[in-house]
Specification:
- Belongs to the enoyl-CoA hydratase/isomerase family.
- Pfam families: ECH_1.
- The protein is built from eleven helices and seven strands.
- By secondary structure, the chain is an alpha/beta fold.
- It has a four-stranded parallel β-sheet, with helices on both faces.
- Helix 3 packs parallel to helix 4 and helix 9 runs antiparallel to helix 10.
- It is globular, with a radius of gyration of 19 Å.
- 31% of the residues are buried.
Length: 232
């Protein structure tokens, strides 16, 4: 599944007909993470096996969601655990049902966190709450996740599909190139100085101002109408 996810996101990243990405679980839970109990009799992996494989699997999924030049929306019902939790955190907008639960179970299972959790959580909720989730294994409900700023919004279960669809449609109708460049600049600014960030903004502005959507935005402003962006 992880390989298929990597392949799909890689294809989406280079498909300029796409305007947004929407990720959701197929069942009652968003994603329970790796199934460690599926093969309890398996031999211990050889030394270095995880170092060799993980960067091309779960870590690549998080990296692609974080860097793809398209807005990414996650809809979360039920459990979002481990990789599933970090996938929801890496998305640009995560909308969760009120019964959802976000959980980083790594240390509860005796191993250290992965898939970007130690980078994402402190930036989203601060060190104290990040340590509560990562070191104490604290489970966070959908309402609390929204209050903490861990996710975009928490809604009733019966509202989730409509709210997520409305958000995806809004993003998909926007100036796709400018959205992608703004997303890139926001993430770049997390590890850059103010002058470095403004320099990056300058180059992004140069690119976005050459798009058809930029011309449409100016025309719509002059004509006092809603812009009709084409993503070009």
């Amino acid at each position: 599944m992880v390989k298929a996810f990597v392949d799909t996101l890689t294809e989406a990243a280079s498909d300029d007909s796409l305007r947004a990405v929407h990720i959701r679980g197929a069942g009652s839970d968003f994603c329970a993470g790796v199934d460690w109990s599926s093969n309890p009799s398996a031999e211990r992996p050889r030394t270095g096996d995880l170092v060799r494989r993980v960067p091309h699997g779960s870590h690549r999924v998080i990296e692609l969601v974080h860097t793809i030049q398209l807005p990414v929306v996650c809809s979360v019902r039920g459990w979002a655990a481990g990789l599933g939790c970090n996938l929801a955190l890496a998305a640009d907008f995560t909308v969760a049902a009120s019964d959802s639960v976000f959980w980083e179970p790594f240390l509860d299972r005796g191993f250290s966190p992965d898939s970007g959790s130690t980078w994402l959580l402190p930036r989203l909720v601060g060190l104290a709450r990040a340590k509560s989730m990562l070191l104490l294994g604290e489970k966070v409900s959908g309402p609390d996740a929204a209050d903490w700023g861990l996710i975009h919004r928490c809604v009733g279960d019966d509202e989730l599909d409509d709210v997520a669809a409305e958000l995806v449609a809004r993003l998909a109708s926007g100036p796709t190139v400018a959205i992608g460049l703004a997303k890139q600049a926001i993430h770049y600014g997390q590890h850059a100085t103010l002058p470095q960030s403004m320099n990056q903004e300058l180059f992004n502005l140069e690119l976005s101002s050459r798009t058809k959507d930029f011309k449409e935005g100016l025309a719509a402003f002059r004509e006092k109408r809603t812009p009709d962006f084409g993503g070009r």
